[in-house]
Write a structure and sequence with these properties.
Keywords: Heme, Iron, Metal-binding, Monooxygenase, Oxidoreductase. This protein has 9 helices and 8 strands. The protein is mostly helical. The radius of gyration is 22 Å and the shape is globular. Bound molecules: protoporphyrin IX containing FE (HEM). Protoporphyrin IX containing FE (HEM) binds near residues 81, 84, 208, 217 and 220.
């Protein structure tokens, strides 16, 4: 037990030191007005904003406050997309016809190109891949639930939940609820066609949560997923390992207890 605690603390130290290095390097660049510092660039990025932010009394954020924000972004931004991409690849391996359609769309967008590097304008052209990604996030739900605590008494359908009550919002459950979705256990990318999306309730598909604290990185995440999946499917064929079935582990981020094993071959 103590060994595990030690391991967690040691790993936290490593993660903190990575974040601190990034922060310190940027602070030095800002102090020395190096070319990478904000004034020489067109846009401020997230770290510039944190490092230069001041409150109404002219006080900036402490090192620890900045590191906490950087940690949040590192983890919210990494494990989530890694889970989404891995589970979507699993579905593409399972449904070869869908993988073929993704490939056909990519081939038509990349026709006559020398490389398979996607251009910014290509991202919006990949409509079928977008539907596959959304269906993957409905079915596998990379963040399967979120939690809240009531800060004041809350009434719902005649019942009062006292302040302090903890609640879980089960997005995975919602995404598989038969009263909300037709054939929820089937993988059907077409349910996310433009016409079908227009008819959906705005709270029936919420992989990035909803409301004022929804995911800050959702547009970035969708683009990252598209670019990575496009490149992978364009270069490799993914097939299931017939001897392996991943066992979903509903944690803060959707994992597999026994990994996701796929067979990968060059195209
Ligand atoms: C498939 C990928 C992703 C999924 C499924 C996802 C999902 C979510 C969800 C469900 C929340 C709400 C959490 C809650 O209400 O308790 C959230 C919040 C957040 N996400 Fe994401 N996320 C993804 C990618 C990203 C990326 C790439 C970034 C940053 C680069 C990011 C940054 C954040 C941050 C900072 C919050 C907290 C926002 C706040 O509390 O106001 N996420 N995300």
């Amino acid at each position: 037990m103590l060994g595990n605690v030690y391991k967690v603390l040691k790993n936290c130290d490593l993660v903190h030191s990575v974040a601190e290095d990034v922060i310190n390097n940027r602070q030095t660049a800002l102090d020395n007005q190096e070319p990478s510092a904000t004034s020489a660039r067109k846009y401020l990025d997230f770290l510039d904003i944190l490092l230069t932010a001041k409150d109404e009394n002219g006080k900036g954020m402490t090192q620890l406050e900045i590191r906490n924000e950087v940690d949040t972004f590192l983890f919210e931004g990494h494990d989530t997309t890694a889970s989404a991409i891995s589970w979507i690849l699993y579905s593409l391996a399972k449904y070869q016809d869908i993988q073929e359609k993704v490939l056909a769309e990519l081939n038509s967008v990349l026709e006559d190109r020398e490389t398979d590097d996607l251009q910014w304008n290509d991202v919006n052209k990949l409509e079928y891949l977008t539907m596959v990604i959304k269906e993957g996030m409905r079915d596998h739900c990379p963040v399967p639930f979120i939690q809240r605590q009531f800060t004041k008494d809350f009434e719902l359908e005649g019942k009062t939940f006292p302040a302090g009550t903890s609640v879980s919002i089960q997005m995975f459950g919602l995404h598989h609820n038969e009263t909300v979705w037709e054939k929820p256990m089937e993988f059907i990318p077409e349910r996310f066609s433009k016409e079908n999306v227009a008819k959906m309730d705005s709270y029936q598909f919420v992989p990035f949560s909803a409301g004022p604290r929804n995911c800050i990185g959702q547009h970035f995440a969708m683009i990252e997923e598209k670019i990575i999946l496009a490149k992978l499917v364009h270069r490799y064929k993914f097939e299931l390992d017939p001897d392996h079935t991943p066992k979903k582990n509903v944690a803060a981020v959707m994992r597999s207890d026994n990994g996701i094993m796929l067979r990968i071959s060059n195209r």
